[in-house]
Design goal:
Elements lengths: L6 H44 L15 H18 L11 E3 L2 E3 L4 E4 L3 E4 L5 E2 L5 E3 L10 E9 L6 E7 L4 E2 L5 E3 L5 E4 L10 E9 L5 E10 L1
Antiparallel strand pairs: 1-2, 2-3, 3-13, 4-13, 5-12, 6-12, 7-11, 7-13, 8-9, 8-10, 8-12
C-alpha cells in the first residue's frame, strides 16, 4: 500500500528549496560585490602612481627613493623610443681645470689680465708669455683669440696681436684694433699657429701716442 504525500507538503518543500537557492545566490552576489569594492582602490592607486599623462614625462611615485627612479628611467627611455619621441641628451657641463675653461666643443686659455702703452711701435705686454702646442688638443684644429681693447683719446687707434717668439714672427691673422674710448670686445678669425711647442706673447701699440689699453685676452681652441 503506497501512502501518498499530500500536495500541500510538496508545495511547501518546493518553496523552501526555491528560497534556499535565492538566498545562496544573494549571498554569493553580495560577497563578490564587496570583494570588488575592496580591490578597486588598490588598482587605481597603482595606475595613478606609474602612468604618465604626457608621453616623454616620467612621474615618480611619492616616497619612491633613488633606486626606484633609476629603475623607472630606463623603462621610460624604451617607451619613448618605441613611441618615436626624441631623445634629449644632457647639456655638456663646463669645467675649470688649471685656469683652462673647457667643454666638449671649446677650450679657453687666459693669457694675461691687463696692460697699457703709449708706444707707437709694437710693445710686449708684461706677463703675457705662454707656451702652446696644438698637439695638446688632438680633437681640436682651430685657434683664435679674444680681447678687450680701448684707446684714451678719440680719433686714435689701439692695436694688439700675438707674437711667436720661438719662430720670430707675428702670428698671421691675429692682429685686432679699435678706435673706441671704452673697452670693446674683439674676436679674431682663425690664426696660423705653427707646429711645435712654441713660446708666444702679446704685443700692443698706439697709433699716435694716446694710451692704448688691453684687458682679459684669451685663446680660443675649437
Amino acid at each position: 500500500m503506497v501512502i501518498g504525500i499530500p500536495k500541500y507538503w510538496l508545495i511547501a518543500m518546493l518553496l523552501v528549496f526555491v528560497g534556499l537557492v535565492v538566498n545562496l545566490g544573494y549571498l554569493d552576489w553580495k560577497i563578490l560585490r564587496e570583494s570588488r569594492q575592496v580591490a578597486a582602490p588598490t588598482v587605481v592607486k597603482e595606475t595613478a602612481a606609474l602612468v604618465s599623462p604626457t608621453p616623454g614625462v616620467t612621474i615618480v611615485p611619492m616616497g619612491c627613493r633613488d633606486e626606484c627612479a633609476s629603475l623607472i628611467a630606463p623603462l621610460e627611455e624604451k617607451i619613448n623610443s618605441h613611441l618615436g619621441m626624441p631623445v634629449i641628451s644632457p647639456t655638456p657641463i663646463t669645467k675649470v681645470i688649471n685656469n683652462v675653461t673647457t667643454n666638449t666643443a671649446i677650450s679657453y686659455i687666459p693669457v694675461a689680465s691687463s696692460g697699457n702703452t703709449i708706444m707707437m711701435n709694437w710693445t710686449k705686454v708684461d706677463g703675457s708669455q705662454f707656451v702652446f702646442d696644438a698637439k695638446d688638443y688632438p680633437s681640436k684644429s682651430k685657434v683664435s683669440w679674444e680681447v678687450n681693447l680701448k684707446v684714451q683719446n678719440p680719433n686714435s687707434r689701439c692695436s694688439a696681436r700675438i707674437y711667436d717668439q720661438t719662430n720670430l714672427r707675428a702670428v698671421d691673422y691675429s692682429e685686432l684694433s679699435t678706435t673706441s674710448t671704452v673697452f670693446e670686445y674683439l674676436a679674431s678669425q682663425n690664426v696660423a699657429i705653427w707646429a711645435g711647442k712654441n713660446q708666444y706673447y702679446l704685443e700692443i701699440k698706439s697709433l699716435d701716442g694716446s694710451t692704448c689699453y688691453i684687458s682679459s685676452p684669451r685663446l680660443v681652441i675649437k
